[in-house]
Hints:
Layout: E1 4-8, E2 13-17, E3 34-39, E4 55-60, E5 69-70, E6 75-78, E7 85-87, E8 92-96, E9 101-106, H1 113-120, H2 123-129, H3 141-145, E10 148-152, H4 154-216
Parallel strand pairs: 3-8
Antiparallel strand pairs: 1-10, 2-9, 3-4, 5-8, 6-7, 6-9
Amino acid sequence: MPKIYKVKLHEIANIKTGLVLSRKRASPMSNFTKKYNTISLKSFNENGFYDHSCLDTFIADEKIKDEYLLKKDDILIRLKEPNIAVCVGKDYGDTIASSLVAIIRTTKNDINPIYLTNYLNSSFAKRQFFKQSSAIPMLNIKTLENLKVILPKKEAQDRIVQIQTLTYKEIDTLKNLIQQKQIYANQIFNNIINQEIKNDQNHTRHHKFSSLESVRYI
């Protein structure tokens, strides 16, 4: 049996556009309202992980169907550039995936959703997105459905995800260290400049005091 399969995305996942919010937005005349969160463009971490700390608020005029609410292992991909894909780590029953994104839900048990997310962010997928021209202003569902996916066996997918996850954690650690070093360097700079200003002010005061003392004894 082959160790690697090539399939089209629609053969291993259901793909649909998120909710068009304007169709469900409550008005002052609405008899029913319900508060939800909606994803924002800041929810898309470049490492492929969904960031739930960056949300917008949405008031709907009816209960939103479950198919538009975030579930564990959902893959969201931005339809506008940059076409970043992220994987949702848990259920968020109060958060709507808007029409800014496509929702991809795997239909096979032998698919690691994080592997598929990383594949969507890889050069293998990007080359297919931009095959027809140098730039595509917006992805469409048809393009995603026909995306050719290189699919190793589940064990290999899991191993790839484990290595990539560890690498991304190391990258985040290094980024945090760089930020701390930058803050430290700025603090040193500010402290030295402030000390020099203080020394100059003290010198000026001392010079004025000395001048006054000299005048007093003339």
